[in-house]
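Mods, move this if it's the wrong board.
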Amino acid sequence: MHRLSLGQQVCFAPVTSANTRSEAARTELLRIAESLREKYAAGRRVLSFPDYIELFAEDPARYARDAATYVRDMFDHYGTTKVARPWGSVRRFSLFDLPWDEGAEAGDARLVGHEELQGEIYRAIENLVKEGRANRLVLMHGPNGSAKSTIAACILRALESYSTLAEGAVYRFHWVFPSRKTLRGTIGFGDSGGADQDRSKGNQPVTYAHLPDDQIDARLSMELRDHPLLLLPLAERRVFLERVFEGTGKKPPTWLLRGQLSHKNQQVYEALMNAENGDLGAVFRHVLVERFFMSRRYRVGAITLGPELSVDAGERQITADRSLAALPTALSSTTLFEAHGELVDAASGVIEFSDLLKRPIDAFRYLQLALETGEIQLPRQTIPLNTVMIGSANEVHLAAFREHHEFPSFRGRFELVKAPYLRNAFDEQRIYDLQIAARQSRHVAPHATEVAAEFAVMTRLDKPDPKAFTDELGRIADNLTVEQKLDLYATGKLPEKLDPEQRKVLRAGLERLFTETESSVEYEGMTGASPRTMRTVLLDAAQSSNHEGLSPFAVLAELDELCKQTSEYDWLRQKAQPGGFSDHKGIRTVVRRRLLDRLEEELRRASGLVDEDRYVELFERYITHVSVWTKGEKIRNAMTGEHQDPDERLMREIEGLLGVKDKNEDHRRGLISSIAAWAIDHPGQKIDAKVVFPALIQKIKDAVFLERRKPVALLVKDLVGILRARKEAKDKAASGEPQDSRPIDHGLAEARRKAALSMLERLVAMGYDDASALDATSAVLQSRYAELIN
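Not the wrong board. Structure tokens:
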């Protein structure tokens, strides 16, 4: 027996492994092929005309949809969710979250916020459905970077996904002509005497839809994606539709009842009808019905068109094409023209005109007539228009368009939809978290994106106009600051200076405040720092040489640099208004203060010297006693079981912490009114003091913390010393300098060292690393605790 050498044995295993992998690969390839074959068959990709008629009869409402109804149903298919806003919940359409796409790159493509805009687009599409066809262009207008392109892209992505589902199946048809070898005597291929032998039993026409390629001489593709039922003559089609729709509770759509074939299809149809002596069944043999899928990449029903200076539809003669030389005799003398262009590619789907108004009016004047008539006029044919048109424009170009003498005639065919910048800081921050923070290789410190979001939103907010309100809300709104308006839109936090009645009025009027300018040409969110600008700020901040990661302090420094570019941005040249509106310097001061407030709060919690839950429990006890007091009842003592009067000492102690010196009774009744109002707005929900009274609980925390501020300050000082020593040691190691043999935290007593390191552990749990913790502690130590440690 031949024995392998050691070297041969070593080589043998990989060969066997490679063979195994090859076999596994072949098996997997066969499995994939079989799976696709089954999916292809299940998807009913290719049908004969009679087969399609049967399919249509199964669900006529689904297969009879025009483009507008199809898009509306697509919105409905992906459903909606409720998004909480301070004034109530709003509807969000789930397709803008791209639920079918779980890839990492989907985060950038999803739409953040803009629920009001989503609702306006759906309303506009629903109106097109009620009109019976897409006779208006939905034009989103807003400042640059306000997510108009993202909205359109989400709709086109949804269109692609929906068309792959059974609920979104759409069909078109082509013409098929068999070869002479396959059939003799067929129309156009020679002797007509043998036509009868091409029929199967039961007088049902033989279909050519499933013939293999080697039995086909010519296939005439139809670019306009006419609906297969348009092949039925008008009168017969009406009867057919009324019968199949009978009992469904719905009516046949007008576009199918009255629609006609496109010019090229009509030419083929008439030529075959003449050659077949009016035998419609013989004509249907040549019809191949094909399911198609929307695709942005392959420009099928989902098109984005930039502001090119060209017409979006044209035609060219195709009978001179040598590849079509095999067309039957009946068509050889017919001059066929093929339509082409973006409007043709978008047939049965959606076309987006990006930056439409950047074109001269002459370049899109044809759209006015096309929308009005439902047709596109070309030199030799008229193309039926079955396409939903959406577009975008910035405010500069729209303002110029409004001044044009032809604007009134266009206005009736445009559905104008405002697309402002976001005015909710949480939504704005989420954009930066998804598109910037998630892609950083360096550490992202807490509050870095929050700082950017708050600055951006405050630059977009307008001072309320008291004349826009006819009640007390006008006077209250007139005294709001930009920071207060920021909090109102984000969380519904009411200004502390308001009395209970004013708070009630403002809470009830929040939605009116938010929508104050929605009917105005100059609306809130039309100006300000754009997300594109802020992304650049964050990217530059992430590369700061003064910080080891994306730090909120680096963001503040970049904002200072941004605000020096007054020649670049209109919003930086606006005159500052009372309340801090349009005051970019004041806004930066507010953002910095809010950052330090948050950092101090986190250091207070991380110190371990303050029991956060204790304050909530204390306030809840206070509310319980106030509630009993307002009712004139007694409260049960948990220790003795006896019923006694509410604790006046406890109530006054808490009111002292809240700064209530006079009119205690009014204050107490105001609290109960606030609870009642919250309960009305949130039926069935348990009252949570942290949700209903966050500002009051924070006020108690701040008041109690004053007594413990110095111990926290000393602890922060110790931690700063440790972190600086660590940084110095790290820098020396990186430069190759000799290291100090003493411990980094030398000079601290053991108890202080442990307390500082425990504080650091809690900060790490909050998302900090050593560098960002040093930034935060140093800033708070210098700006808030300097007088306590000197």
